[in-house]
Design brief:
676 residues; mainly alpha; 27 helices; globular
């Protein structure tokens, strides 16, 4: 009996041990298949959808935006798991992965691995530009650190010098506005003061000093972050520029199809033409950012010239100071974007259009206008919507000028009794007036048309814009759209329409998304209109985390020495935004009362307003971000300067009237006292 029990227990024990062994083998096999190696160490989960590779961290997928990240993380090709788009969209999207791991050494110092080197974190502003956080740090041994060579540190130790310089800059601008607005009359610009240089320095010298100080601060701000990646949307532009710098022809396309996929066609070419700047900085992208500072330093002078054309000399000076002090320079000096160049070009183009309307020599000005607007369209093709109102204004101005000239002649006297001949003469004037406008339009659209034929030769399709325009249209009109930039997924209807478009077409994806967007707009136009109003509101937002230069708040906090918090910076930016928009509204509403019957200035102001409204309303169809108003910032700053001049003038007039009334009442009171 005892033996049987012993044998039975032994058999059951052997069965249990065998079962545990088999379960262990099965567990190890299944775990190994799901991402664990034989030693039980977990390697990062990498997933691939089409050509994009993501690292899954904390239930978020992070796009591996830089191939160097594979080396920094010691990734292996065998770890990549191919999954369909539907499964990919179920994983939340995190920030792009552009840097390697964050390591904490035994002495509790934190390092960031970036492009094959380890860099010590010495300031809190190091994490933001790398899309990292202090919580991402993992413990590492000394041998792990020594596997990477040491390079320049990340972050900046906070100092009060930039903050002090900024305070001096703002104080100087305020003093210039208050002193000059009150003391320089309009006729001062026509007075003889001496040589032209001395006269120009007398009128604009203090503004020039202010611009120089501002440029120095911008250079400082850019140099604080030499480790920055190319920035939002900039890798494609920089890649295209370096493709051209390598000696490749513009009649060929790189492997990423950069020249037809980017929003600005001209910007990669502009960067390639200014490649000598990057050579001065050993090929670093910071050279191009220095060039942005130079471009932003030209903006006050364009704003001043436009202000002088619209309102006069006082507004010109104040608007130039506002352009110099504007918080927008934080973006324009740091972001590697084309909006700054586009704003400079639109400001100059608007100035030339106003001059063409104001002067009688139309045959000279419309040619120059056409050349400038050709560059504007080549920088961003959506600005073509501005050509319609500008062409109508130019045609009307030329028609009125020619009609007045013909009425002053003797020929019109003989035509008064003949209605048919008078109608023919009017038709002739209309046709003659349209010739310069047609020439202006022909010059303006010629580079874009030529680019379309280039794409016809390279891609067998006549493409004048970006292949991403259809995606942006769907992004701004899909059922879950917010009005701004967002990650979009492909609906089931996308795959159903794939059969309608050829696989070899480079615009296939854009055309599918565009057709889906149009169907969605037609199906629910009320929702599209409501979303369009949201986009118009987003256009005037101030600093926000989405797409206006990520982590700009943290960089600005560091730049200001840490004394101004991120919340304070946002509050200050919003307060400034409300004030300047209020001033711009004052200038627009009181323009007629201020200028009186000056039809030329009123007409020029109408041109600027029409350009602002047309550019603003265009974003209803696509998406709207605060960054997108940079191209019309020069026009808005002119109205801000005019509003400030009007407000100060009204205040001075009120104070003067009160003082005069007090002086008038003083003798009466003394007389009444004596009489009593």
């Amino acid at each position: 009996m005892f033996v049987n029990r012993y044998a039975s227990a032994t058999v059951h024990g052997l069965i249990l041990i065998a079962g545990l062994a088999l379960a262990s083998v099965q567990f190890q096999t299944s775990v190994s298949a799901n991402g664990l190696d034989a030693d039980g160490q977990v390697h990062p989960r990498l997933i691939r959808s089409m050509t994009a590779i993501y690292l899954v961290v904390n239930n978020k997928r992070r796009l591996v935006a830089n191939p160097q990240v594979f080396t920094d993380y010691r990734f292996q090709e065998a770890w990549i798991e191919q999954i369909p788009d539907d499964d990919l969209n179920r994983v939340g999207l995190g920030p792009d992965l552009i840097a390697g791991p964050v390591l904490r050494d035994p002495s509790n110092r934190i390092w960031i691995v970036y492009q094959g080197t380890r860099r010590l974190v010495v300031g809190p502003d190091a994490y933001g530009p790398m899309y990292l956080r202090p919580d991402d740090a993992i413990d590492a041994t000394q041998s792990d650190l020594e596997a990477y060579p040491e390079a320049r540190s990340f972050g900046n130790r906070q100092t009060l010098v930039p903050l002090g310089t900024s305070v001096i800059l703002v104080a100087g601008g305020v003093l210039i506005c208050l002193r000059r607005v009150a003391s320089i009359p309009e006729s001062h610009t026509k007075s003889a003061i001496g040589s032209k240089f001395f006269r120009a320095w007398h009128l604009w010298g203090d503004v020039a000093v202010l611009v120089a100080i501002s440029a120095a601060l911008k250079f400082w701000f850019v140099s604080l972050y030499p480790w920055l990646p190319d920035g939002a949307d900039a890798p494609a532009y920089v890649g295209g520029a370096r493709y051209l710098q390598a000696g490749n022809s513009i009649m060929t396309e790189d492997q990423n199809g950069t020249f037809v996929s980017v929003t600005s066609t001209m910007y990669p070419m502009l960067l390639a033409l200014t490649g000598w700047v990057t050579m001065l900085t050993n090929g670093n992208v910071i050279g191009w950012k220095f060039l942005q500072v130079v471009c932003s330093s030209l903006m006050p002078w364009v704003v001043g010239a436009l202000g002088n054309e619209l309102y006069g000399f006082r507004t010109a000076r104040v608007a130039a100071v506002i352009a110099t002090l504007s918080p927008l320079w934080f973006y324009s000096a740091e972001l590697l974007q084309y909006e700054l160049w586009l704003g400079l070009a639109i400001g100059l183009g608007t100035l030339l259009v106003c001059r063409a309307v104001s002067t009688q020599r139309h045959r000279y000005w419309w040619v120059l206008c056409g050349v400038v607007w050709a560059g504007i369209l080549f920088l961003q093709v959506k600005t073509a919507v501005l050509l319609a109102p500008i062409s109508l204004i130019l045609w009307y101005s030329i028609f009125v000028t020619i009609s007045r000239a013909s009425q002053s002649g003797t020929e019109n006297i003989t035509l008064r009794g003949n209605a048919s001949r008078l109608a023919l003469e009017r038709m002739r004037l209309i046709a003659v007036s349209a010739i310069p406008v047609v020439a202006f339009l022909s010059i303006s659209v010629s580079p874009v048309i030529a680019w379309g034929f280039r794409n016809l030769s390279v891609h067998n399709e006549f493409i004048i814009g970006s292949t991403g325009s259809g995606t942006l249209l769907w992004m701004g009109s899909q059922p879950s759209a917010t009005g701004g930039y967002m990650q979009i997924s492909r609906p089931q209807s996308y795959y159903e329409r794939e059969k309608l478009f050829p696989n070899q077409s480079v615009t296939r994806n854009a055309r599918i998304f565009a057709s889906l967007a149009i169907d969605n707009i037609v199906r629910d136009p009320t929702k599209f209109a409501l979303l369009g109003m949201t986009k118009l509101e987003r256009f005037w937002w101030t600093i926000s985390p989405d797409r206006l230069g990520e982590y700009l708040e943290a960089r600005t906090v560091s730049f200001l020495g840490g004394l101004v918090t991120s919340t304070g910076i946002i509050l200050l930016s919003k307060f400034t935004q409300y004030v300047v928009l209020f001033l711009a509204c004052i200038a627009i509403m009181r323009a007629r009362n201020t200028l009186g019957n000056d039809s030329i200035h009123t007409k020029n102001i109408s041109i600027a307003i029409i350009i602002i409204l047309t550019f603003w309303i265009t974003h209803i169809a696509f998406i709207a971000e605060p960054r997108y108003r940079l191209p019309i910032a020069p026009l808005i700053q002119v109205f801000e300067g005019a509003g400030l001049v009007m407000m100060v003038t009204s205040l001075q007039r009120f104070v003067t009237q009160r003082i005069g009334r007090t002086e008038d009442l003083a003798p009466d009171q003394s007389d009444s006292t004596v009489a009593v």
